[in-house]
Amino acid sequence: MKYFVVLAFAFLFSSQIQAQKIAVFDHYSDLEKAVLNDENTTYVVNFWATWCAPCVKELPHFEQLNFENKKIKVVLVSLDFKNQYEAKLLPFLKKKAVKSEVVLLTDKDYNTWLPAVDKDWSGSIPATLIIKNGKKFFVEKMFSSYEELNQYVNSIIN
Amino acid sequence: MKILSALLLFVSVIFTTAFTSNAPTPYKIGDTATDFKLKSVDGKMYSMSDYKSAKGFIVVFTCNHCPFAKKYEDRINDLSKNYKSKGYVLFAINPNDPVAEPADSFDMMKVRAKEKGFAFPYLLDEGQKIFPQYGATKTPHVFLLDKNRVVKYIGAIDDNVDSASDVKEKYLENAIVALESGKTPSPEITKAIGCSIKVKK
């Protein structure tokens, strides 16, 4: 019984941590190595922020995509300000019950990492990057429906 | 068959011209930027051609609602004050459609300008005719022009949006210094995150 209580506590504690913590990267290159590293996975990487209204609007489409399209993995890269991580980002993810993988990128060296994502990216968000077999496909736009997003993704990965 | 191919060619030409004219090519370094005649929060109309003795122009596409733009408000205000006496005129242009983004309406611009004591013309790109010609895609987005409106620098104000005191490289100011001494700014183009421009639906 004693063990059970300890275990139950440990379990509760760990799941709570899982729900509340997301990986934070100060450099895009580190994020690439840690999160976008599997050659056999097709990634749909969405750059967004809680302060970006069109991003928040299209977020459910990415959630649905992650759930319904088994050929891809959605990664939501938040560009929220570092000091709003706990005050804004975490409550937002909890409230919206976001299931896709979320990471926070705080790399301010835009001149280096934006061109590494795509040479033509002006820096406006939302923006979406698809990585398949090491090839990159980038688009700087908002998807206004799930169908539009799914169609676009399928046109690239199939 | 000949007629058909001629017809196809004709149709494709029509289509190409139609689409090219809809989306102007964004300005590159060395292009001559268009002048404008836009209304500021003081109710007056402003154009670059009103400033005959200017040595150059700083055109900043910015707005009320965007957190990235907000973080630069004070810096933009300081720039406008510091460079006015040196002959560089700063214009801030709000490119957003007020229906798509109510926080960026002309009335809200007036409120914000008063709150922050903006020392520069804060203009509304009414009808959204100007920003597409420049190729602005986000706020803030800066274009530095010389006195002949030739584009000399495009991009960010500096390299640290979070804190002005932690800035390592003042891209825009360095570009002005280069321009002053007849040199080519380095870098001529920088990238930065910003809020996408809200277009009329």
Estimate percent helicity of chain B. 25-40%
Beta strand count of chain A: 7
Q: Terminal Cα separation of chain A, in Å?
A: 54 Å
Strand order of the largest sheet of chain A: 1-4-3-2-6-7
CATH superfamily of chain B, called what? Answer: Glutaredoxin
Q: Oligomeric form of this entry? A: heterodimer
Strand content of chain A: 15-25%
Write up what this structure looks like.
- The complex is a heterodimer of chains A (158) and B (201).
- In chain A, helix 3 (53-68) packs across helix 6.
- Chain A has 158 residues and is α/β, with parallel strands linked by helices.
- Chain A is built from six helices and seven strands; from the N terminus they run αβαβαβαβαβββα.
- Chain A has a single domain (23-157), classed as Glutaredoxin, CATH 3.40.30.
- In chain A, a hairpin with a 2-residue loop joins strand 6 and strand 7.
- Chain A has a six-stranded mixed beta sheet with strand order 1-4-3-2-6-7, sandwiched between helices.
- Residues 11-19 of chain A have low confidence and may be disordered.
- Chain B has a single domain (25-196), classed as 3-Layer(aba) Sandwich (Glutaredoxin).
- In chain B, 32% of the residues lie in helices and 18% in strands.
- In chain B, strand 7 and strand 8 form a beta hairpin.
- Chain B has helices at residues 2-22, 67-84, 106-116, 130-134, 171-180, and strands spanning 38-40, 45-46, 56-61, 88-94, 122-124, 138-139, 141-146, 151-155, 194-196.
- Chain B is α+β, with helices and mostly antiparallel strands and 201 residues long.
- The termini of chain B are far apart.
- In chain B, the strands form two sheets. A seven-stranded mixed beta sheet of chain B has the order 2-1-5-4-3-7-8, covered by helices on one side.
- The chains are: A alpha/beta (158), B alpha+beta (201).
- The A-B interface holds A 51-54, 79, 81-83, 108-111, 114-115, 121-126, 140, 142 and B 66-67, 101, 137-138, 141, 156, 159-162, 187, 190-198.
- Strand 5 (124-125) of chain A pairs parallel with strand 9 of chain B.
